[in-house]
Amino acid sequence: MLVKGNGLEEAKIEIGKIIKDLNSSTACFTGHRSQKLPWRFNEEDIRCRAMKAALSSEIEKAIQNGYSTFLSGMALGFDMICAETVLAFKEKYPDIKIIGALPCKTQDIKWQAKDRERYRNLLVKLDGVRCIYDEYIGAECMLERNRYMVNNSSLMIALFDGLPGGTKSTIEYAKKQGLKIVVIKP
Fold it and tell me: Which residues make Cβ contacts (< 8 Å) with residue 163, sequence separation at least 6?
């Protein structure tokens, strides 16, 4: 970029435009953890299968509308299902990317062994990982992870039942930031 004279304002505008262009092709996910879902950990439940079908449809619509990068917080439940779904679409759309936005490196430390295994198998398949903190420092690291995803996206696909909590807060923040939001009901 060529900066004439002072040019600082023009440079800031140009950088802002570049960031907006990058964000315009990035979508993020937010949704409930398994324990808050009506089917809990039973992904064979008909309601979970219906949610997965709706999610798959929304992700494909996003891809067809020019979204090529997807951000997942990689939490138990909806986040990991989203990452798995995007990875499945990479066969049909090899140029898409899935990035894990982790609140901390130790996110899975208290999870059951089968959930840790699923998580770690997914991590190695991702196109990249952005980790906010080394260690869990409390709810703040989850909040910062969610803001990172929203601040770097223009579309949010959410699994939301309307109740208060982290998902609701993330959706409200995304609305304030001007993201397009698609809500899937559990």
Answer: none
In 5-77, alpha helices (H):
8-23, 46-64
128-180 pLDDT tens trace: 999 999 999 988 999 999 999 999 999 999 999 999 999 999 999 999 999 99
Answer yes or no: are the C-beta atoms of 153 and 182 closer than 8 Å: no
Q: Token digits for 134?
A: 């080394």
What the block records as the tokens of 24 is: 């315009």
* Helices 113-123 and 78-89, axial angle in degrees (round to 10): 40
- pTM as predicted: 0.88
Residue type, 153: S
Handedness of CA 78, 79, 83, 89 (dihedral sign): positive
d(CA 4, CA 168): 45
**For the chain, how big is the Rg over CA atoms in Å?**
17
